[in-house]
């Protein structure tokens, strides 16, 4: 049986699938050619990440397809309900990238509180002529330890962020429509651990009381953070979005940054991907990455092997 990994798959994933008797095709097929390629090559499993869209047209055009797999968490590029109605299995890997995304959140937080994003832009330009000026400009850093981190969306990734925050000595508060409470186990290198129980609060309370805010919610209609939410926030709040573009109103974000309400923002995702607004890209108070939350070697290995295990279980063991 053939598997088309159209947006790529790790070597460990390929090895696991081949060991399970599958032929893995990693040719990148253009979006408009995907259905034709699947039918011509009798592909049974289509694996995607965020680039390839699997809408009704592909599902209807490919009666031989048995599984659609998403390497990662969000499945907004797949018509999931329709595919399942048509009898297809739709799978993803919700646990595999949590740690990687959480570490990127803290990369943005550390960057923001020590102005690394701006310093890294200006040091090559002025470091030899205005060293003391830059030193003064970036002299008002703040520590994360002892501050309150508000986590909006308290699923696997939100809880992975909570573990790191607790390890740093931060207070963690969280909001989630579907999670009332969670026990966060913080593991240490020597086998010791602590358990911390966190009871979720209302969105407004989390927004009001946080020194830093990070979002871990799926794509949805409407903004989670809009003008009204920015007005509720503390002065000099830092905000990070490594979830989905479109959950923060970017126009309102820029206003809040320019007014000094928000100290900095860290963005891995954008309303208009893959062509983010130039005002966002050029803003001196925004730390930027190009949607790389799950892009670590470890996460990609876990994604590949987890997809392989699910595929083998569905098609070989039934």
Q: What is the number of strand segments?
A: 13
Give the SSE order as H and E letters. Answer: EHEHEHEHEHHHEHEEEHEHEHEHEH
Instruction: Give the spatial strand order of the biggest sheet.
Output: 7-6-10-11-12-13
Share of residues in helices:
25-40%
Rounded radius of gyration (Å): 22 Å
Basic shape: globular
DSSP helical segment count: 13
**Mean pLDDT across every amino acid position:** 96
Terminus-to-terminus distance: 14 Å
Secondary-structure-based class equals alpha/beta
Low-confidence stretches: none
Task: Give the DSSP E fraction (strand runs of 2 or more residues).
Answer: 15-25%
The description of the largest β-sheet is: 6 strands, parallel
Report the oligomer.
Answer: single chain
Domain D-isomer specific 2-hydroxyacid dehydrogenase NAD-binding: 107-293
Protein name: D-2-hydroxyacid dehydrogenase
Organism: Flavobacterium proteolyticum
Keywords: NAD, Oxidoreductase
Explained architecture:
It is a single chain. This protein has about 325 residues and is of the alpha/beta class. The chain is built from 13 helices and 13 strands. The strands form three sheets. Strands 7-6-10-11-12-13 form a six-stranded parallel β-sheet, with helices on both faces. The chain has a five-stranded parallel β-sheet with strand order 2-1-3-4-5, sandwiched between helices. Strands 8-9 form a two-stranded antiparallel sheet. Helix 8 links the parallel strand 6 and strand 7 (about 170-175). The radius of gyration is 22 Å and the shape is globular. The two termini are about 15 Å apart.
């Amino acid at each position: 049986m053939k598997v088309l990994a159209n947006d790529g798959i790790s070597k460990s994933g390929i090895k696991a699938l081949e060991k399970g008797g599958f032929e893995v095709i990693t040719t990148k097929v253009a979006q408009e050619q995907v259905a034709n390629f699947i039918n011509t090559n009798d592909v049974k499993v289509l694996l995607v990440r965020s680039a390839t869209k699997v809408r009704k047209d592909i599902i209807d055009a490919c009666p031989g397809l048995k599984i659609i797999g998403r390497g990662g968490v969000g499945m907004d590029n797949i018509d999931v309900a329709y595919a399942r109605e048509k009898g297809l299995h739709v799978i993803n890997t919700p646990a595999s990238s949590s740690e990687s995304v959480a570490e990127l959140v803290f990369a943005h937080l550390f960057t923001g509180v020590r102005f690394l994003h701006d310093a890294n832009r200006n040091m090559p330009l002025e470091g030899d002529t205005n060293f003391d000026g830059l030193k003064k400009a970036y002299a008002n850093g703040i520590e994360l330890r002892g501050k309150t981190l508000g986590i909006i969306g308290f699923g696997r990734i939100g809880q992975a962020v909570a573990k790191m925050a607790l390890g740093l000595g931060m207070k963690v508060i969280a909001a989630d429509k579907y999670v009332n409470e969670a026990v966060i186990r913080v593991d240490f290198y020597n086998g010791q651990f602590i358990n911390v129980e966190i009871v979720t609060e209302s969105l407004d309370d989390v927004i009001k009381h946080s020194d830093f805010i990070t979002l871990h919610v799926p794509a949805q209609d409407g903004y989670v953070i809009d003008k009204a939410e920015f007005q509720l926030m503390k002065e000099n709040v830092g905000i990070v979005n490594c979830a989905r573009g479109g959950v923060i109103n970017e126009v309102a974000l820029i206003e809040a940054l320019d007014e000094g309400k928000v100290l900095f923002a860290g963005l891995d995702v954008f309303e208009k991907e893959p062509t983010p607004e130039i005002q966002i890209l050029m803003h001196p108070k925004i730390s930027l990455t190009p949607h790389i939350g799950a892009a670590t070697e470890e996460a990609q290995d876990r994604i590949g092997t987890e997809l392989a295990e699910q595929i083998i279980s569905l098609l070989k063991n039934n």
